[in-house]
Amino acid sequence: MMSLFKHTALAAMIGLSTPAFASLAYVSNEKDDTLSIIDTESMEVIDTIEVGARPRGILLSKDHTKLYICASDDDTVQVLDLATRKIVDTLPSGEDPEQFALHPNNRHLYISNEDDAIVTVVDVSNKDVLAQIDVGIEPEGMAVSPDGKWAVNTSETTSMLHWINTETFEIEKNIVVGQRPRHVEFTKDSKIAWASAEIGGTVHIIDVDNLEQIHEMSFKVPGVNQDRVQPVGIELTDDGKYAFVALGPSNHVAVVDAQTYEVLDYLLVGSRVWQLVLDKDQKHLYTTNGVSGDVSVIDVEDLKVIKSIKVGRYPWGVVIDPSS
Amino acid sequence: MSLLFRTAAVLLAATFGMAPLKADSLEVHVGYVQWVPDQGPVLSNVIPEPEDAGLKGAELGLQDNSTTGKFLGQTYTLKSTVADSEAEAIAAIEQLRKSGIELFVVNAPEQTLKSMIAKAGADTLLFNAGSKADGLRTTECNANLLHTMPSYAMLTDALAQWLNQRRWDEIFMITGPTDDDKDWANAFRRSAKRFGLEIIEDKPWTFDADLRRTASKELPLFTQASDYDAVVVADVRGDFGEYVPFNTWLPRPVVGTQGMSPVTWHRVVESWGAAQLQNRFRDLAGRDMNGEDYAAWAAIRSIGTAVTSLGSAEPADVRRFLFSDTFQLAAFKGRKLTYRNWNGQLRQPIPLVHPRGLVARAPFEGFLHPHTEMDTLGFDKPESKCRING
């Protein structure tokens, strides 16, 4: 009994002694060629660092030590060391890299080359180009399923989801969706994929086992012309409760019940909302607002916008480092 | 031996089993005919228009369709003719029709287009990617004609909306001598009335001097008036208009066919993914994409979008689909584009540009419409006699 108490006390002390480190959010500013770094505790920009030309897609290495940056107009993927905040390397990326996704093996990076209608697969450990896969016109969104089985690419002008087998690097299935598909997000169990179609105004729910669409949803924001309702970024909560969908120039984020696909609310954020990310404990959602040049913060529990943070010009991508 | 034979038979059956898949493959043939009459000599001949304007847009559209088609077993071919005369252009339509082509994209003047429609016959679908004539959208209606090129009225409505929201409502107008100039000017006069602008001076351009030497002397006198907010120029072929900016009597902006212009497309348009389209076009054509290229591209992409969805390239099927609620064209203008069901005009935002930058994009917020703001540009249903879908 005594011994148990001692252990608990010890554990509590260790818990207390850990400094309350806030995790950092990284935002790529497409027209400033910079990254803004936001402290998620104070919700303020604490640093701005220069990167390559026209940074768009950004992602974190699985060990959280590096940030990969698509420097679209430099035709390269840059590697930022998070400890020193210096660009330490570049990867061969093919032309005009826009978005990418990292395989759970922390090695295979799938990059969509927007101008070339190609997906390039690079091994980040030795910079080998493992494959270049022909896809539709203007490949954009990239996602790898958490179980590592599938890489999905969206081609905007071809309006398809290309399902790439990550063992063979070959396309196994093409699913036609709404016009201008932009983004794919998998559920944690890799069973369901959500895909947004910007011009179609739709979100397509795909059953990954059968590679078939099981539901299609659309949005109606009160007082906003239907043409302006353009779904782009999607973020799913780990508890399976919510899906958040950024609706572009309608300046709203849709809150969707992730089980019934019912839209629960529309939250007003900045102008032309593009990408979304949840913070480490999933209490806050960060949105990049391209035209207004800021980031909105949404309280997930209250479903309210609580703050907007000024960043650079045309903020595009956003990631949060949960370990920082 | 017997086993081997059986295996072969199974393989054979399997091969035949594949046959229906083959039947899914589809060949789509599109005809493109261009005839652009010589504009005659112009004063400002510094920047010539590309001769393949339109054709290269069609070629890019075909490439885009083919990339999509290869995942679906659909192949596209383009048979194109750039004619040297009206007769040659009309003959080209006849020949293409005889070779079995039923889908056409045409970049030609109004009258030529009308002759082509007659030659093509009823079971075809034509896209007007050249003529901006308002008559084709209001009175001379054709059930199998769609317009991807905006009308003059759409362009001038875009300009008039912009002038209205800037509150620059007193206009000094200069109109050139050609029929196109007069059509453009008539369209603007209608737009001025619609959007509450007052044309305080409406002067025809009558000079025939070489303005490269004398613009700075002639134009200040020509544009004398007590006051105005902007000068509107109607000079479609670009004869004298380039010499109006900075030479006006009063320090006022020049807009219209020169200065800041409402256009179908321009190299400065880069938002909404347009940068990618511009890059693709430059790779293909070695020059910037213009309005004719865009209209031809949009026509071929409309066909491609329909075929992707239908798995058929029958003109009647394609037409039905293009007018249905399910059709939407993703065309880099920030909105989904659809066809007006009364006259076949492709609804589209209109960029307002100066040679090195985008100024604005019509329609503007605040100009309301019961169905879609995009129908504040051009002839709305009650203003058009066309009812091509009954």
TrEMBL record, chain A:
Q: Does the keyword Endoplasmic reticulum apply?
A: no
Which Pfam families does the record match to this protein?
YNCE
Report if keyword Repressor is assigned.
no
Task: Name all YNCE-like beta-propeller domain ranges.
Answer: 67-257
Keyword annotations of the record: Signal
SUPFAM superfamilies reported for this sequence? Nitrous oxide reductase, N-terminal domain
Signal peptide residues are 1-22
PANTHER family to which the protein is assigned, alphabetical: DIHYDRO-HEME D1 DEHYDROGENASE, PROTEIN NIRF
Name the NCBIfam families for this protein: beta_rpt_yvtn, PQQ_ABC_repeats
- The protein's name is YVTN beta-propeller repeat family protein
TrEMBL record, chain B:
* Leucine-binding protein domain residues: 53-237
Specify the superkingdom: Bacteria
The secretion signal range is 1-23
Q: Which UniProt keywords apply?
A: Signal
Which InterPro entries does the record cross-reference, listed alphabetically?
A: ABC_transptr_sub-bd_PQQ, BCAA_transport, Leu-bd, Peripla_BP_I
Q: Which family does it belong to?
A: Belongs to the leucine-binding protein family.
What PANTHER family does its record include?
LEUCINE-SPECIFIC-BINDING PROTEIN (PTHR30483), PERIPLASMIC BINDING PROTEIN OF ABC TRANSPORTER FOR NATURAL AMINO ACIDS (PTHR30483:SF6)
Protein name in UniProt? Leucine-binding protein domain-containing protein
